[in-house]
Each structure stands twice: as structure tokens, then as C-alpha cells.
Design a protein that fits this description.
single chain, about 325 residues, alpha+beta, Gyrase A, domain 2, 5-stranded antiparallel beta sheet, 7 helices, about 15% helix, globular, disordered N terminus
Length: about 325
């Protein structure tokens, strides 16, 4: 099938061993996330004119990905957004971008009936993974990805895409509430799951680096091409329908013994060692210590001979891994 001048390349999701699955069970407090609250009769319509997703059309009980772009179409931040109550929208994002994003968004509120605030001190976010989390949630676990179960006005559970059959959820609850009665999941393991999902989360190290398509954001539902205008919309639309997309996000693995892979690190390639070939968007350590990164790279290099290397042309070699979704590949 042709999509915007591209053809679909199906890539099978990577498998988890029984031992890995057993180790990826539990809950982790997402201290590197924060929450912006938008309140008011025009909160959704204001965000509609700022973000890449259809906020006004967001159905009750649903969450969605969304991006906030510069006028050049580069992602300044990314969000998981949902509406816990009428005239209220919550935006979960990287904590290290929250203050600057809140300040920038607030500049454009003007006369709109919308109040923006940092709700991070009031709302704690938890990442839940595995069968143990599923059993603990019980009927509170939403049936499908991006569905929201509101156990109360103060607690919402958002189903995230599974990773190789391993269920994941985002729990939003009052900061004063007790921690989930689950085993502790290491933060690096949750970050590994984030990377393995193929869903990019923009942090300070990667802000203003990627047009949404460069990190597959439109593939995973982070861009709506039928909604109205927003900052950078023309650039994003041109990249989709008129441009020749040269870069995409791929999954790249690194052995546990090598230096840690982190968001914002450059990668290089054997066939063009004199200049960077891409940038790490997300990375984490799996249960066996092996590293996995979601890395924006030059498509031509990913499809050809040679290997990517972390940090320098002679740095540790990275192994290409399958993505968990069908990736549109530019034919040039």
C-alpha cells in the first residue's frame, strides 16, 4: 500500500524470553515525567491550535499522543494527553521540558478561556508492566491501547501499547496516594520498554531536533493530518505528502558491557564515518542488561551495508533490531 509516496515495510516485533518477561513485572515512579494541566471552557480548542493531534475530537475515555512543534516543524515536546473531567486536559511530558513548554504555551493563551499550570506536584505518574500489573489493576485495566479507565475522579489508568506481548499502563494518581502494591521495576527497564515500543518521548536532549516523521510519530498516532493548523503544520504536512523523507527512527541494540546509550547521543556509520548518521531519541537497559535505543538515522544507511556506532565512527557497534509496527519507507 502506498502512503504519501511511501511503501509499507513490515517489521516483526522482537521477542522476549520467559526470563526477560518475568523480570519486567512491576511498577516504577516516573520521576522523569511531569504533568501540565489545561483547564477552562476553551482548554481543548486552545490546545487544538497548538498540538499535532485532534484534541477537540478526543473521545471520552481515550488518550492520544501529541507533539508541540516549532514554526520549523521540529518537536519541542511530546505528550500523552487525556481529559479526566469536562473542561480539563492533562498533558504528560518529560519533566525536563515542562517549565519551558508551559511558558511557551502560556504566551499564546491570550484571551482564550484556558488556564495552564504545572500539576506535577499534585499528580504522580507510574509505569506499570507485566502480568503482575494486569492482575493488580483487575477491572481498572483498559481493554485496548490508548483507552483510559477512570477508577475515580483522581485516578486514571491509560493502556499503553504492549511490547512483544507484555502489557503496559500509565497510572496517574494523587501524589499523596500509596504506591502500587507491585514489585519495583527499575527505571532503566521502563526506559527499555519505552524504546522497544517505538514511541518516541521528546526530552531536553532531543528537543527541536526532529520533524515528527523522523521519529515515526505519525505512524504511532501522534499526528492528525485532517485537523486544522498548528505551529509547524505546513512543514509537517510537506514532509508527509511532498517531501522526500531521508530519516526514520530504528531500534538499535548494544551489549550490556558497552558504555550506556542515552538520549541525545550521536551515532555514526561505517560508510560515512566523517559525520553523524543519527541521534538517539530513547534508550534503556533490559532485564539482562542489554541496551536498546530508539535512534533516528539516515534511511539510506540503515538499508545498506555496514554498521552504526555509538558516539564515534570507531565507537561500539549497534545492531539493528525489528520495530513493532509497519514502517513507511521513503522511496526517494
Amino acid at each position: 500500500m502506498i502512503i504519501g509516496g511511501m511503501t509499507d515495510l513490515a517489521l516483526a516485533p522482537a521477542a522476549l524470553t520467559p526470563a526477560s518477561t518475568a523480570a519486567l513485572q512491576g511498577a516504577v515512579r516516573l520521576s522523569d515525567w511531569g504533568v501540565i494541566r489545561a483547564q477552562g471552557a476553551e482548554a481543548a480548542s486552545f490546545l487544538q491550535g497548538q498540538l499535532t493531534s485532534d484534541v477537540v475530537g478526543l473521545a471520552p475515555g481515550q488518550a492520544t499522543l501529541a507533539g508541540y512543534c516549532s514554526v520549523k516543524g521540529r518537536l519541542l515536546a511530546s505528550f500523552i494527553i487525556w481529559s479526566p473531567a469536562p473542561d480539563e486536559v492533562l498533558l504528560a511530558c518529560s519533566a525536563d521540558l515542562l517549565a519551558s513548554t508551559l511558558k511557551r504555551l502560556s504566551m499564546f493563551v491570550m484571551r482564550a478561556k484556558c488556564k495552564l499550570s504545572d500539576a506535577s506536584a499534585e499528580i504522580s505518574l507510574w509505569g506499570l508492566a507485566g502480568q503482575a500489573a494486569t492482575e493488580w489493576l483487575g477491572e481498572r485495566r483498559p481493554a485496548a491501547p490508548w483507552a483510559v479507565h477512570a477508577a475515580s475522579s483522581n485516578e486514571q489508568v491509560i493502556r499503553l501499547p504492549d511490547v512483544a506481548g507484555l502489557p503496559r499502563c500509565l497510572l496517574a494518581q494523587p501524589a499523596s496516594a500509596a504506591a502500587p502494591a507491585l514489585p519495583a521495576l527499575p527505571p532503566a527497564a521502563w526506559q527499555w520498554l519505552e524504546a522497544a515500543s517505538g514511541v518516541a518521548r521528546i526530552a531536553a536532549a532531543t528537543a527541536d531536533k526532529f520533524v515528527p516523521q523522523m521519529v515515526n510519530f505519525e505512524v504511532v498516532g501522534g499526528v492528525n493530518f485532517k485537523k486544522g493548523c498548528y505551529p509547524g503544520q505546513e512543514v509537517v504536512a510537506r514532509s508527509q505528502y511532498r517531501g522526500t523523507l531521508k530519516r526514520r527512527a530504528m531500534l538499535l541494540a548494544l551489549p550490556a558491557a558497552e558504555p550506556a546509550m542515552a538520549a541525545g547521543q550521536e551515532v555514526f556509520h561505517d560508510t560515512d564515518p566523517g559525520q553523524p548518521a543519527g541521534l538517539v531519541a530513547l534508550a534503556g537497559h533490559g532485564p539482562d542488561g542489554a541496551q536498546l535505543g530508539l535512534v533516528e538515522v539516515k534511511l539510506a544507511l540503515a538499508q545498506g551495508p555496514g554498521a552504526f556506532h555509538l558516539g564515534a565512527a570507531d565507537g561500539p557497534a549497534l545492531a539493528l533490531q525489528p520495530l513493532p509496527y509497519t514502517l513507511p519507507v521513503d522511496q526517494g
